[in-house]
Each structure stands twice: as structure tokens, then as C-alpha cells.
Amino acid sequence: MTSKQIEVVSAEQMINIGAIMAGALRPGDRILLRGELGAGKTTLAKGIAQGLGFEGRVSSPTFTIMNVYQGQVPIYHLDFYRLEGEERLGEEWEESYYGDGITLIEWPASEDQDLAGIRVEIEIKDGDYDAPRRVKLTVPSGRQQILKEIAGHVDFEH
């Protein structure tokens, strides 16, 4: 696993990072989005969906649990905030986990932290919702191209 951090100063920049990241994703990828309420998980998901060619509205699937968007590949956007334990492992999520699309999971459980998952942790600096975010990207071995794509557009923190 390789990790890098960047500071994101606006929602527009978060969307752009998601769109850039999308260019290095491939069918079957699972992106695990962690961060407190309002950190920017759905905003990053919007950028990824746009980068994959989806032109519609991306919204948090908090109440629907899963939204499916059709871009160049299917995009499965899940929010497990309201689910516990076995509910997160149900058959209804199987297509999104093992299908031919990209899966974005907000509020993943610890059992979702598999070695193949691409992890994104978003932290609101100083607890101020108007402050920049610190975004930590962790990719599995062999997937450093994702970080290289992003590094071509933004500077990572050292």
C-alpha cells in the first residue's frame, strides 16, 4: 500500500481531483470513502462520476443506500452510514462489489477495508467546515498510477 496526502481548498478542487482520479480507475475498483459528515465524500464521488462520463446529478445515497450512475462503466455509489454488520454484506450489494463497474462506498465498515480497495480519508482541518480538507489517498500495490495521475495536477504534502 502506498499513501499520499493533499490539501484541498474548495469543493471545485475536490471535484477536479475526483475527475482526475477517475482517469486511472478500472472496472472492478472499489473506492472506500471515509470522513465525518460534510467532509466532502459525496463531492469527491461527484468528480469521479463526472470523470467517468456521467453527466447527471450525483447525490448522497444516505437514504437510498445505493445510487447507480451510467458513465463509461456503471458507477455504484453506496452509503453504509445507516447499515450495521451483516446488512453491509447482503446479496443486494453483490453486483456492485463484483460487477464490471466502479464502486464508491461512503462509510465503509472495517470488513470493507480489503487490500484491493482504494482508500480515501478526508479530514476537515481544525474542525472548521470552511477550512481546507486534508485528503489521504492509499492505493494497493500496483496501483500507484492513480497517485501519479493526481500528482500531475496537484502537489502532494511531504
Q: What is the CATH architecture descriptor?
A: 3-Layer(aba) Sandwich
Mean of residue pLDDT?
A: 86
CATH domain class: Alpha Beta
Structure summary, number of beta strands:
7
Work out the radius of gyration. Answer: 14 Å
Strand arrangement in the largest pleated sheet: 1-7-6-2-5-4-3
Task: Give the tally of structural domains.
Answer: 1
Beta strand %: 25-35%
Q: Mind describing the biggest β-sheet?
A: 7 strands, mixed
N-to-C SSE string, H for helix and E for strand = EHEHEEHEEEH
Global shape = globular
- Determine the fraction of residues in helical runs and give it as a percent range: 10-25%
The helix count comes to 4
Here the CATH topology equals Rossmann fold
User: How far is the first residue's CA from the last residue's CA?
Assistant: 17 Å
Spell out the CATH superfamily: P-loop containing nucleotide triphosphate hydrolases
Helix/sheet category: alpha/beta
Poorly predicted runs are none
